[in-house]
Design goal:
The complex is a heterodimer. By secondary structure, chain A is of the alpha/beta class. Chain A contains 7 helices and 9 strands. Chain B has 9 helices and no strands. Classes of the chains: A alpha/beta, B mainly alpha.
């Protein structure tokens, strides 16, 4: 099957104001398939967020080539942010609406889509609330709702649960898996948590820093729902840990 | 889930509006004790000065906002911002006699100089707010492809509004000061500058005039600017 995204020899170098260069990513080659839950895993400074933003189109690469399958374009992408990135001056309803407000929808269609996402994310009662009135978990639900309202084919997630407490993060992870199963989306996520990567991913790109490189791409064949206490889970955990550990 | 309002209740609005009555009571009492000037003349002077300042403010705020959103980033910023910094440092009052010579002692000259005074605090305040925009908010704008009126209404205006209010408070503070000075130097026939110029040798009237002036500025701040400032900051709370 043709991959939805293909990266060839992608590198990224940042230049500081005084002319100093830092190589954030070096020679990344990768293919991601349709419907896959793909995770970039690595410590701070391994360039995983930069890579996510290059694939998503937020950042240009310094060199290399990215190819999208012909039926995919940048409007099929959506993004879920680490710190939610909600606009505090807009209500929950308007924040979700923001995802599609620039598209040529009839007002009734727009309202229907927003209503669907409010319901899916359990936010109906909070539609007129402002982000400051919500807990972290609820805010990320708005972020997810905003992304889903765009009806994307591929969703990018930059450490979407790292700002949440462990209970809320676990609850949202399970909801995300359900959404992924229902919608058959391709999800590309960044995390620094091995357990999270093992719980969610079909494949895990293990990244190492200085410069950011893919050390190994590991296929996660653990059956779903995944048992985090199984010996196989622990074995994979240890294998990844050994690869990441400096 | 209370709706964000500028005035929190009807009582708040009523009390705030009552504050606006204070300067008029002051003017009424003031004119009773001073024989040299009638209440009508006094109101006319205050009114004309206020009108000049208002016109200058609306020009300054529109121009300042447009310049700020046009020049805050990219190559344009590298060239334009140092230029604007030099421009705002120019001692414009030095050019006032020349401007009066060229355009005569008119209200237009006063308004022009007020615009030059008020625009810079507004411009730099908005520039600063735009430079501090959260990166992920900008990425949301990219992701949602906001542009045109939708971009203006849902992002650019809300994100710059608190800075616009702060810049307006500072700009108008400087504007009130420049207003009287400009009216005196230009020697226009009406306005507060003319009033203070007329009673230059009467310490009591001048002192009472300054007091009235302060009450008026305080009232405007209390009625308009402070509630707007609080409201805009509440809207930006995360």
């Amino acid at each position: 099957m043709t991959p939805v995204i293909k990266l060839q020899n992608i590198s990224k170098t940042f230049k500081s104001d005084v002319g100093k260069s830092t190589v954030a990513l070096k020679n990344i080659d990768l293919e991601i398939s349709e419907g896959e839950f793909f995770v970039f895993l690595g410590p701070s400074g391994s360039g995983k967020s930069t890579l996510l933003k290059i694939i998503n189109g937020f950042e240009p690469p310094s060199s290399g080539k990215m190819t999208l399958r012909p039926d995919i374009n940048l409007t099929d992408f959506s993004f879920i942010f680490q710190q939610f990135a909600l606009f505090p001056w807009l209500t929950v309803r308007r924040n979700i609406e923001l995802g599609i407000i620039a598209r040529d929808f009839l007002k009734s269609d727009l309202e229907r889509i927003v209503k669907t996402e409010l319901k899916r994310m359990g936010l109906e009662k909070f539609a007129e609330a402002y982000p400051k009135e919500l807990s972290g978990g609820m805010r990320q639900r708005v972020g997810i709702g905003r992304a889903l309202a765009q009806k994307p084919k591929i969703i990018f997630m930059d450490e979407p649960f790292s700002e949440l407490d462990s209970f809320t993060a676990e609850e949202l992870r399970q909801e995300l898996l359900k959404i992924w199963r229902d919608t058959k989306l391709t999800i590309i996520m960044v995390t620094h948590l091995i357990e999270e990567a093992l719980d969610l991913a079909d494949r895990i790109a293990i990244m190492t820093p200085l410069p950011g490189q893919i050390e190994k791409i590991l296929t996660n064949n653990l059956p779903r729902p995944r048992n985090k206490r199984s010996p196989k889970f622990y074995r994979l955990y240890d294998e990844i840990y050994r690869l990441i550990k400096p | 889930m209370r709706k964000e309002r500028i005035y929190q209740s009807r009582r708040h609005l009523l009390i705030t509006l009552l504050i606006l009555v204070v300067p008029f009571i002051f003017l009424l009492v003031f004119s009773r004790f001073i024989n040299e000037i009638t209440l009508g003349e006094l109101l006319k002077d205050v009114g004309i000065s206020f009108l000049r300042l208002s016109i200058a403010y609306f020009i300054a705020v529109s121009l300042g906002w447009l310049l700020a959103v046009s020049f805050y980033h990219g190559r344009r910023a590298i060239i334009a911002l140092p230029l604007f910094d030099v421009l705002q440092s120019l001692p414009t009052f030095a050019a006032l006699p020349l401007a009066t010579y060229l355009w005569g002692p008119s209200g237009v000259t006063v308004i022009l100089f007020l615009v030059v005074t008020i625009i810079w605090p507004i411009f730099f305040s908005i520039i600063s707010s735009l430079k501090l925009i959260r990166r992920d908010w900008e990425e949301v704008v990219k992701m949602t492809k906001l542009r045109g009126l939708t971009y203006l209404k849902n992002f650019l205006w809300p994100v710059t509004f608190p800075a616009l209010v702060t810049g307006s408070i500072v700009g108008l503070g400087e504007g009130w000061e420049a207003l009287v000075a400009t009216e005196i130097i230009v020697k226009v026939k009406t306005g507060l500058g003319q009033f203070f110029g007329l009673f230059v040798q009467n310490t009591t009237i001048t002192a009472l005039g300054i007091l009235g002036f302060l009450i008026f500025i305080f009232s405007i701040n209390k009625v308009i600017w402070l509630p707007l400032l609080e409201w805009s900051h509440r809207k930006m709370e995360e």
